[in-house]
Amino acid sequence: MNKLTDLFKKQVVVFDGAMGTMIQRYNLTKDDFQGFECNDFLSIAKPEIIKEIHSQYLIAGAQVIETNTFNANYTSLLEYGLEKRVKEINTKAVQNAREVANAFSTHDKPRFISGSVGPGTKLPSLNHIGFNEQKYIYFVQIEALIEAGVDCLQIETNQDPLHIKAVLNAAYEVFSNKKMEIPIIIQATMQDNGQMLVGPDTMTFLQTFHQMNVDVIGINCGTGPHYMEPYVKVLSQYSNRFISLLPNAGLPIVKNGVLSYDLSPIEFSEIMANLTRKYNINIVGGCCGTNPEFIKALAEKVKDIVPQKRLIKTDNHLTSLYMTQSVNVQPKPLIIGERANTNGSKKFRKLLQEEKWEEMLEVCREQQEEGAHVLDVCLADLNRNEVEDMSVFIPKLNLNIQTPLMIDSTSYESIYKALENIGGKPIVNSINFEDGDDRVRKFVSMCHNMNASLICLAIDETGMAKDFEHKKNILIRFIDICKSLNYPNENIFFDCLTFSLATGEDSYREAGVESLKMIDYIEKNHPEINSLMGVSNVSFGLKPKVRKYLNSVFLSECIQRGLDAAIIDASKILPLANIEEQTLQFCLDLIYNKKTEDYDPLLKLAELTIEADQAEPKGNDLSVNEQLENKVIRGSLTELDNLIDILMKEYSPVEIINQILIPAMQIVGSYFESGKLQLPFVLKSAEVMRKSVDYLKPFMNEKTKESHKKMLLATVKGDVHDIGKNLVQIILENNGYQIIDIGVKQTPQQILQAIREHQPDALGLSALLIKSTEYMKETLEYLKKEKVSIPVICGGAALNGEFVKKELQSIYDGQVSFGKDAFSGLDFMKGLSL
Question: How far apart are CA 67 and CA 139, in angstroms?
């Protein structure tokens, strides 16, 4: 047991507070930063200040101090021209922290250092950066931190699960290279709506990672502790890892004209102590706005609290980027939709060959809406590059489909490429022992590092297992390998593998019974392992209507034996009550091999007069207007042109935009604000809006085309965070507005120059840091002095409506609005267009 994780068991461990908040107290000049206004560079430029901050936190009672490396990765340092000094900055930061920690350590109270690894500015799920590029960037930082001697890694303030996966895999690679491990802490930041920025709630975040090689799962930044009980409660109930909670010093407020936070050190510490005691939190500390006064009060309040063992709900889950799906559904089974599969669907294969990605998404959406719990996705095609197809289609699924995925391929490289683009916890389908143990081990290791469940087929070197004993031996062999690699049994799916009963061959007549025996065995002897069946295999070769009957009856028999998961087309399963009694009996007799010399149930099924399948009218009850509105809300790009062509027979292009498209986007905005719709879906809806407007433009007169306004966007001086600003740009551009984005770290003079050059109708200013809000104020004062009064919208995590109204509006002659989220920018621009 590591000394630090051993400490987490015995007591509540106090981490330090904010580094940036403390640095601001020193009122440093550009010269203090040696020309690089980057907090992380102070470890080199002003090491005495960083060491003094560490000392203040240790004196206050912190047992663990975090290195000054929150932004010390390649992409963040690139903004300051420091990208070639990643190792130097991280190494020096650890040395500073170690020197102070050693000075304060005693035998009874050792002090530790945590390697701070921040989120950077690029989110893989939003396609800002590739998984492997992100992984390499953090590999360099983590390697430097570990070589310099941190006691643990703290991957914090995370907004995207796919980013966390990349960073974790960078850490695992460093561990493997150095043949050592240190504890890993991962912490998410939850927005006001209870979700990470790209959409996952606390349960989804937890279930995506709690079976990976991490020691602590927690929450940091975001709001103050007074809003965090729902998140901590979920962790306490479901997390089998240590829990950390490092919130901000409350919510931003204005005090004496300065943006601050709404909790005092005493209030903060009392709320934290109550949460710690109630939910058995192991690690506490502070984030933005907290300082040694907060940590001193906190350390005093929690010093006598001993974390108790939590009673964990152990239900196993799969996740997408947005939602959690229990594997143990009631009633069983877990339904895995099978239509997005090139091997089983001619329609889907043709769509892939024609690269109709949107239509392929529709196939997946349809199954999701029909009730599939998981979607099986196979892109194998002999005439195509499967790895490349995975790299195109899986990111689209990751962003657009809420249902967890099952990646179906025989190619290790294709599966790995898919996993690199999935933010949640999927299933991998599948592995077998046809090529021996080594290949199985390779797949198990991959799924362990990427946190995917794995299906093992009942196949070994001798072929497909037909009888129960053969199937059982393969399962036991697989369990042993998983155990040796610490792969959880809960993540194992075993395909009991049935064969078609339509061949008429004697060797296959018992196929159904033998598979049912295997389901029985798993349920009784290995209940933590998930039995799985590709149900429709049992009827392969029969006519469609008979297949529907036999599949439905066989599925019912499997469920009675305890089947956990079924790969089926849910739309082709019938209730047994809808099957004639005689037909039902024929199916049961075929499954249980009741054939005699005078009676063959297979022939009886074949002789049945099968009524031709009646086309199931899918008729659309929605009007054309409603269909287009629905396309926007669902983010569906298919058939847009046809719908608009029909509508233009009755409406002008401007009427279509004003009466259908804009109201639809307003519905999307309301869903987003209420938390019913996650960010990537909003972006997809915005894309539908843009394509619709683009299609309508040629039919508009020139004056109408040019009616949309122009906005200049900038992140103010001292701040490199641009994710929020970029989201505003996407939504506004996709709604027809012209955007000029001049980037980050923009001085008042640069912003004025851009205004004069581009003549925008409005200005959008972004800032994430508390310190940056002062630069925002400085920018507006400068613009007023230069006689600029165009409308301005100000947004960012550090801002609130009160500060904008009282402090920013009061110093500027033009309109100043608060941008609570990306949709506020859209409403703002619509207001200017009226």
Answer: 17
Most confident of 37-41, 265-269, 776-780: 265-269
* Cα dihedral value 640, 644, 645, 648, nearest 10: 180
Report CA dihedral (239, 243, 246, 251) to the nearest 10 degrees. Answer: 40
Distance from C-alpha of 572 to C-alpha of 802, rounded to nearest angstrom: 57
Burial of 622 (0-12, 13-18, 19+ CB in 10 A): exposed
The model carries a pTM of 0.84
**What six digits make up the tokens of 541?**
């070769």
Whether the per-residue pLDDT at 615 is higher than 70: the answer is: no
Average pLDDT of the chain to the nearest whole number? 91
Can you count the helices (H) and strands (E) in the chain?
33, 27
d(CA 169, CA 209): 12
Taking the CA of residue 283 as centre, how many other CA atoms within 13 Å lie in the half-sphere pointing to its CB?
Answer: 33
Q: What is the mean pLDDT of residues 505-517?
A: 91
Both tokens assigned to 522: 């798993």
List CB contacts of 535: < 8 A, sequence separation 6 or more: 498, 551, 554, 555, 558, 566, 567, 568
Mean pLDDT of 433-449: 96
| Whether the Cβ atoms of residue 751 and residue 773 lie closer than 8 Å to each other | no
Does residue 676 surpass a pLDDT of 70? no
With cut-offs at 50, 70 and 90, classify the pLDDT of residue 609.
very low
Collapsing DSSP states into helix, strand and coil, what is residue 261?
A: strand
Contacts of 788 (CB under 8 A, 6+ apart): 752, 755, 814
Q: What angle do CA 526, 529, 535 make, to 5 degrees?
A: 110
Contact 278, 271 (CB under 8 A): no
Instruction: For residue 433, give the nearest of 467, 404, 409, 456 by alpha carbon.
Output: 456
Confidence of residue 679 (pLDDT cuts 50, 70, 90): low
456 — pLDDT class (breaks 50, 70, 90): very high
CA-to-CA distance for 615 and 423, rounded, in angstroms? 38
375, 364 contact by CB (below 8 A): yes
Say how far apart CA 721 and CA 79 lie, in whole Å: 10
CB contact at 8 A, 224 and 261: yes
23 φ, ψ (degrees, to nearest 5): -60, -40
Closest of 793, 739, 737, 804 to residue 766, by C-alpha: 793
Q: Please, are residues 245 and 218 in contact by the beta-carbon 8 Å criterion? A: yes
Query: Which tokens is 100 given?
Result: 């102070």
What pLDDT, in 10s, does the model give residues 292-305?
999 999 999 999 99
The answer to whether 213 touches 248, Cβ cutoff 8 Å, is no
Name, in order, each residue with C-beta under 8 angstroms of 9's C-beta and a sequence gap of 6 or more. Answer: 282, 307
For 290, phi then psi, to 5°, come to -80, 155
Tell which residue, 322, 191, 217, 207, has the closest CA to residue 279: 217
Q: In what order do the strands lie in the sheet with 242-247?
A: 13-14, 283-284, 242-247, 216-221, 184-188, 152-158, 112-117, 64-66
Instruction: Assess whether pLDDT exceeds 60 at residue 783.
Output: yes
